[in-house]
């Protein structure tokens, strides 16, 4: 049986980002936009783990924690509290409220999966990669440069080109997926950079390894299908 995860955040971008990070694991995902909505979800399903933001309207993460820790039916549920600002005072408050772990925004897919793995042993799906040659545009809305995607998975890509950005930078990426007529527009984070003075992967030209951010479930499924079919044909 797949474990059930409840993601609670009032910013839809972060919900979609976490869902895209979790696309590599076998689990059922439920969402809510504040603590009160999360309590309503708990009346229908009992999740195996809750990932909840600290600052939200109506009911924040601390208030949600206090509510479930006095409820016999829900007090056992592990909770990871997420916040962009963490100091000693907040850590103490979170610990007193009953959080099992605190995670600082922004976090990577590896950070999230590592945090989850401490509570649930979730089977990870293998991300197949496919060698491709897909023209792409990258940069920002007012200035887009042209590059070439040479390696593609449902979670990211290698983009060849003279990318004058640092590791950790976020850029917009646009490309047309072959044989689908599907234009992908997504934000992507630079995870590593290949350049003449520092070739981390000598088999690749100059460029950058990218991690997709906030892809919809539909887009992930389309990418997955494209890659699986391409791998079967090769």
Topology:
Elements: E1 4-8, H1 12-21, E2 28-32, H2 35-42, E3 49-53, H3 61-69, E4 79-83, H4 88-97, E5 101-104, H5 109-117, E6 130-140, E7 143-152, E8 156-160, E9 170-177, E10 182-194, E11 207-213, H6 217-233
Parallel strand pairs: 1-2, 1-3, 3-4, 4-5
Antiparallel strand pairs: 6-7, 6-9, 7-8, 8-11, 9-10, 10-11
Helix pairs in contact: 2-3
Account of the 3D structure:
The protein has 234 residues and is of the alpha/beta class. It is built from 6 helices and 11 strands. The strands form 2 sheets. A 6-stranded antiparallel beta barrel has the order 6-7-8-11-10-9. The protein has a 5-stranded parallel beta sheet with strand order 2-1-3-4-5, sandwiched between helices. Helix 2 (35-42) runs parallel beside helix 3 (61-69). The longest helix is centred in the C-terminal third of the chain and has 17 residues, at 217-233. The two termini are 34 Å apart.
Going by helix content, strand content and strand pairing, the class is: alpha/beta
Name of the CATH architecture of the largest domain: 3-Layer(aba) Sandwich
Count of helical segments?
A: 6
**Helix proportion of residues, in percent?**
25-40%
CATH superfamily of the largest domain: Response regulator
Hey, roughly how much beta strand do the residues contain?
25-35%
Provide the residue-averaged pLDDT.
Answer: 88
CATH fold annotation of the largest domain = Rossmann fold
Q: Could you list the spans in which at least 5 consecutive residues all have pLDDT below 50?
A: none
Write the element-wise H/E pattern from the N-terminal end onward. EHEHEHEHEHEEEEEEH
For the largest sheet, list the strands in their spatial order.
6-7-8-11-10-9
Radius of gyration: 20 Å
Q: Termini, distance in Å?
A: 34 Å
Task: Provide the CATH top-level class of the largest domain.
Answer: Alpha Beta
Largest sheet: 6 strands, antiparallel, barrel
Shape: elongated
Overall strand count: 11
Number of domains in the coordinates? 2
């Amino acid at each position: 049986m797949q474990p059930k995860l409840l993601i609670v955040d009032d910013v839809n971008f972060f919900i979609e980002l976490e869902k895209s990070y979790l696309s590599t694991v076998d689990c059922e995902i439920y969402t809510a936009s504040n603590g009160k909505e999360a309590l309503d979800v708990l009346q229908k399903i009992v999740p195996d783990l809750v990932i909840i933001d600290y600052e939200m309207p109506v009911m924040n993460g601390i208030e949600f924690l206090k509510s479930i820790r006095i409820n016999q039916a829900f007090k056992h549920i592990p909770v990871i509290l997420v916040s962009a600002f963490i100091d000693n005072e907040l850590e103490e408050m979170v610990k007193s409220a009953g959080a099992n772990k605190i995670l600082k925004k922004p976090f990577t897919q590896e950070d999230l999966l590592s945090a989850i793995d401490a509570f649930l042993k979730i089977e990870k799906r293998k991300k197949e990669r496919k060698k491709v040659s897909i023209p792409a545009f990258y940069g920002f809305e007012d200035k887009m440069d042209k590059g070439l995607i040479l390696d593609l998975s449902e979670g990211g890509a290698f983009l060849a080109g003279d990318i004058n950005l640092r590791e950790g930078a976020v850029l917009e990426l646009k490309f047309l997926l072959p044989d689908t007529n599907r234009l992908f527009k997504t934000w992507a984070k630079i995870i590593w950079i290949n350049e003449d003075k520092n070739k981390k992967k000598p088999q690749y030209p100059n460029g950058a390894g990218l991690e997709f951010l906030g892809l919809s479930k539909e887009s992930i499924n389309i990418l997955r299908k494209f890659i699986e079919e391409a791998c079967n044909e090769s």
